[in-house]
Amino acid sequence: MTRFFAILIGMKRFLSIIIALSLTAFALTSPAQTKVMSHRGYYAHPGSFENTLTSLRGAQELGVEGVELDVHLSSDDSLVILHGPKIPGTGYPDIQKLDYKTIRACRLPNGDMIPNLREYFSQAKKTTGLMLFLELKAHPTPERETLLAEKVVALCDKMNMYDQVTFISFSEHLCDEILRLRKGAVVIPISSGKAFTTEELLRRGYAGVSYHMGVVMNRTHLLDEAHEAGLQTVLWPVNSYDLADFAMRHHVDYVSSDEPQAMLNLMSAIRELQWKQTKKLIVFDLDGTLTQHRQPLTEANRAVLDTLSKRYEIIMAGGGNCRRIYAQMGEYPVTILGNYGMEESRIVDGEFKIVREETSPVDRKFFDKKTRELREKYGYTSYKGDPLEYHQSGMVTFALLGTKADQADKLAFDPDKIRRREMFPEVSEIFKDYSVFIGGTTSFDITPERYNKYDAVMRYAAGKGYVKDQILFVGDDFADGGNDSQIRLGGMDYIRIDDYTRLPEKLRFLF
To answer: How many angstroms separate the CA atoms of 309 and 311, rounded?
Structure first.
């Protein structure tokens, strides 16, 4: 299969297939961005093996959006990860009948130990945007399955993993037990034969459904009805061009693949060809996307904007105010949606002009009190400058190091955003009547509820006559809490930039 993908992607046959696809793609609604789930981690390379920490690290380095893993209870009630039930390379036929000590003494074909779930979570937390599809394996009795659910939920509670975990299982009892134990958990049943009705999925509180390809190939209405109801869809196994094409055309949210690298390349190539022909408006985030945080626009990225502006309309959408963005970009002549859409600037007769400013009242006593409590709880009681920045628009910046912190300290504080992601659920709950984003390098941006980048872009697009399928957003932080997260949640097509210096390389296909 690996050889098949290499040939498909690298040779003329691939190009001819893509061209044929382009002739029919535009008769359909532009597909949502189908994401790649690496089945049992990324183990399709030397030195790795499925469901190991090695395969998880490989998936993280590869940059997939999801990883599937399989969880069992040992005979003495420990959470261990293996597809199972047989332990490869040993004579043990059933991992669920072994105690933890015996399991940990085993070595898999690549030399790895069988990981426990705590270890797996600890490694996964290093890539906060990675979604874990945690398959709860069926057990001999309902009592054992309930215990499995209880232990998994307890660990997720302790390690604060719910933002990164989707619970999946062939056992509907296990699915129901997770929801009983943790209301609001994201639970998806897996089916290799049963066709769930949308009504049943909604009634039981499931977030979606995971189907074997054989269930839906001739019953695509199952996918359409699920999407219309706002449910997620997952398809497996997807290891070929034809199935990838099917999944993308039918708006599938995730495909589970044993060849994730090839699948990423394949889907990227399909999207790039479609996007170059359909996109009219390209929207950019600034910090982390076009520039280093609060640093000037580089000449290389300025040249990218110059090139793209000859073919597309280019605008900016940022969390900062329009004047700051304009200055940081070296007065580049572009329309700016600032403060998450509360402000808009345009170039009129060659001059920068604010054309819209909206404001919202702020309860300063409430913000002062609640952010002081958060500082005391999390240990951010020392800071430079002011603890909060109250913007004229009504946006509030909760700066953990203060408004006058040194730039070097800010850049070193939380580069992977782990510290602020740990706080994010509590900050969001306290300010539940607002929109909360992990902004900049050390702060949270808190805006009136209706202001976010997705709504700001769609408001602008409506005024210009664009529809969503004609818009492409370029940003760096689409994970939950990220200031680009609403773009992903709203279903807008986007490109994630991991390193602003690679922007020309990432966008060359649009030239």
So the answer is: 5
Which residues lie across from 189 on neighbouring strands?
169
List the alpha helices (DSSP H) in 204-317: 213-216, 221-228, 241-249, 260-278, 299-308
Q: Nearest Cα to 187, choosing from 171, 211, 160, 167?
A: 167
Q: Say whether 238 sits in a helix, a strand or coil.
A: coil
Confirm whether 484 is domain-assigned.
yes
CATH at residue 101: 3.20.20.190
Q: How many structural domains compose the chain?
A: 3
Pairwise CA distance, residues 498 & 168, whole Å = 29
Residues 338 and 376 in one domain: no
Say if residue 253 is in the same domain as residue 310: no
Kindly report the CA angle at 193 between 190 and 195, in degrees rounded to 5? 80
Same domain, 38 and 104: yes
Paired tokens of 349: 């007769």
What's the pTM?
A: 0.70
Distance CA 173, CA 71 (A): 15
One-letter identity of residue 199: E
Residue 103 backbone phi and psi in degrees, to 5: -60, -45
Domain range for 188: 26-264
Both 71 and 214 in a single domain?
A: yes
Place of tokens 């985030």: 285
Query: How is residue 212 written in tokens?
Result: 């074997």
pLDDT tens string 225-282: 999 999 999 999 999 989 998 999 899 999 999 999 999 999 988 889 889 999 999 9
372, 414 contact by CB (below 8 A): no
